[in-house]
Amino acid sequence: MQTSHNTEDSVSQDSSAPLKRAMSTRHLVMISLGGAIGTGLFLGSGEVIAQTGPVGAIISYILGGVIAYMVMLCLGELAVHMPVSGSFGAYARQYIGPGTGYTITWLYWLTWAATLGTEFTAAALLMQEWFPHISVWIWTIIFAAFVFAMNMSSTRWFAESEFWLALVKVVTVIAFILLGLLAITGVLSYQDYESAPLFSNLTAQGWFPEGLFPIFATMLIVNFAFSGTELIGVAAGETQDPAKNVPKAINTAIWRLLIFFVGTIVVISALLPHQMAGLDAEGVSSSPFVTVFDHIGIPYAEDIIRFVIITALLSAANSGLFAASRMMWSLSYQKQLPAIFSRVNTRGIPYVAVIVTMLGGLPGLLSEKFAPETIFKNLLGIAAFTMVVVWMSICLSQFNFRRQWYKQGKTAKDLEFAAPLFPVVPVLGFLFCLITCISMVFDPEMLPGFIGCLIFIAGCYISYYLLYHKKS
């Protein structure tokens, strides 16, 4: 195997030198799973089933998994060749253009910073269902302090805390799928069924009771459910032996996610009529997980799922603060933010970037007081859109990188990890993500977020060319 030693790569690899390489494959896989398994699965999966029908939802999640896998293969190739903490921002800067790299880095930072506050608020509101006399603000401060402490302690401590938070979700999903399959086959009794329900609900009202269009209309929700897998790329700059650990983590994470997501959808669809899956009930009780556990006869089902969703929210905030602070550190290292933002402490933590990102999450806390539904929906739309744009940049970066690689007279065999089927994988990954972005236009609730994102992207490019283009 041949490792590249050209100047541009050595500069990029040096940029991650102050950050400690303390993560193993175990940490990478769980960070990726933890980023992806969240409220989108526990609460959002029922909505997709209700809109598309059971078979449509299964197709949506398989397609979403395939898109995520193509993007992660592209990311794996880039991350092994160039393991930096700026990740896809650094790749976009080098292989698309400096203005695009700057914009992508800010987009990803904003995605996480904007949702940080809502994660804490949502977790606090759930705690208040248990402890109604304690103010939401107290829980918010406790959760924010916990996530801040995990990120400030050390890379190793962050990775370890994320491993255990993610493990709670993974165990819950595995238990849900196994118990669901036992109910489907009649080993466990299930409410309102004297014999095994089997899979009759899947096609009880036809293969596509809502038509084919909702399969594509819900792709943004489904793609957002898989978002978080790209955290492997952000963490690559702080990973031991990236050439070995990153590809292994990507393959492990994507296949497990596909099994978890599709397995969950199959169980919900087999055990609940599709109209019931997306009930607009208040709070956690609207989760199809609660309904299925209740019908199987699991005691305290709502409390169990509430606890799991709280850990899911904290896990997402934990990963988000990590990812966003590394993006800010990267901008500062490239002299596109003041030097203070790239300062690291003795434990290798970019502490100024962590503190400022934490403050960037404060506006999200206002969602509890001011129009929570509107703010949540718009933040979801913005986060989903910006995530898919980041994925598009990963595909385009890998496509351009590989073309440069071939022009230098090298082959795919000279890479330590090469995405297969070039150029099919990056081209299809890019096109599917583009279609997903365009689908936002057809959703009236998502349209304001879509327009806002386009304005923000234009603002990033304009600010880059006004402030930094001449310097670079």
Notes on the protein architecture:
There is one protein chain. The protein has a single domain, classed as Up-down Bundle (Amino acid/polyamine transporter I), CATH 1.20.1740.10. The protein is globular. It has helices at 7-14, 25-36, 39-42, 44-52, 54-81, 88-95, 98-130, 136-153, 155-184, 213-217, 219-226, 231-235, 242-271, 274-277, 288-296, 301-333, 351-360, 362-365, 372-407, 424-439, 447-467. Residues 1-17 have low confidence and may be disordered. By secondary structure, the protein is mainly α.
Structural topology:
Elements: H1 7-14, H2 25-36, H3 39-42, H4 44-52, H5 54-81, H6 88-95, H7 98-130, H8 136-153, H9 155-184, H10 213-217, H11 219-226, H12 231-235, H13 242-271, H14 274-277, H15 288-296, H16 301-333, H17 351-360, H18 362-365, H19 372-407, H20 424-439, H21 447-467
Helix pairs in contact: 2-9, 2-13, 2-16, 4-5, 5-11, 5-13, 5-19, 5-20, 6-7, 6-19, 7-8, 7-16, 7-17, 7-19, 7-21, 8-9, 8-16, 8-17, 9-13, 9-15, 9-16, 11-19, 16-17, 19-20, 19-21
Radius of gyration: 22 Å
Judging by the overall fold, what is the CATH architecture?
Answer: Up-down Bundle
**CATH-assigned homologous superfamily:** Amino acid/polyamine transporter I
Major pleated sheet: none
Given the structure, what is the number of helices? 21
The count of DSSP E runs of length 2 or more, i.e. the number of strands, is 0
Distance from N terminus to C terminus (CA atoms, Å) equals 34 Å
N-to-C series of helices and strands:
HHHHHHHHHHHHHHHHHHHHH
**Percentage of residues in helical conformation:** over 70%
Strand content: under 5%
Number of domains: 1
Q: Any idea what the shape is?
A: globular
CATH first level: which class? Answer: Mainly Alpha
Low-confidence blocks of residues: 1-17
Average pLDDT, to the nearest integer?
Answer: 81
Q: What fold name goes in the CATH topology slot?
A: Amino acid/polyamine transporter I
Secondary structure class reads mainly alpha
